[in-house]
Amino acid sequence: MLPTPSSSSTPLAFAAVAPRLAARRRLVRVAVATCTIGAALGVGLAAVGLARGSVLLLGLALGSCLLVALALGALVVRTTRDASAELEHLARLALVDPLSGCLNRRGFRRAIVDAVRRAADTASAPRALALLSIDVDHFKAINDRFGHAAGDVVLREVASLLAEGCRPGDSVARVGGEEFALVLPGADCELAGVVAERVASAVRAHRFAILPSDLRVTVSIGISVEGIESEREARALRARADEALYAAKRLGRDRVLLWAPGVRSMATPTVPAY
Prior knowledge:
five-stranded mixed sheet; 61% helix
């Protein structure tokens, strides 16, 4: 089992920007040292100017101090701007699964919260939200037979296929070892089924170069669709999508199943399967 992305992505995010932060600290130290020398020079010129009553030296001192002040001000502005950009970059990296490149569990939760809030801001009635819980079938067997490196390649390619099959504005997340999820804002049952069948067919038809040509990788997908008004309802929606996924796997895998009451105890398909 691969490590949970939400526990590993944050250290990797800091590691990704650490060289740039170190270079910026060195630059700041050099700039501060230069400004310090300039300020010392200005003070020295001012002292000599006062002692000799030289207007020229006093002017040079004033100019030197003014340049130092301008340089320090520019340094503060640039450093603040760059630090803000780095913090935003870190925040984005902390939401991304480093293996697959899609959202991690933390990013998945953020995508749901954002979808709920956007729906609340733009709709007078509950707006539909569809969640797809996706599991790569028999993934443990792939790891056991071909090794974890091959399994990682499969996960990356599956993530890419899922992203290609989504609409603009949809979110793809890796929420576990071989478990993915799609967040489809505004999608009803029919549209969610179309997206689910499209990505399932794409995975089924894909040829994974790292695996034997006769080995097919498939996914099982559970769908849950509901009008959502709160984050609590979104959590219930996720639980229903998982129930539908588990039922799809019990029914033989490589299928798409829409949640309906009683799906947890299903033994044969009795709810819509696209």
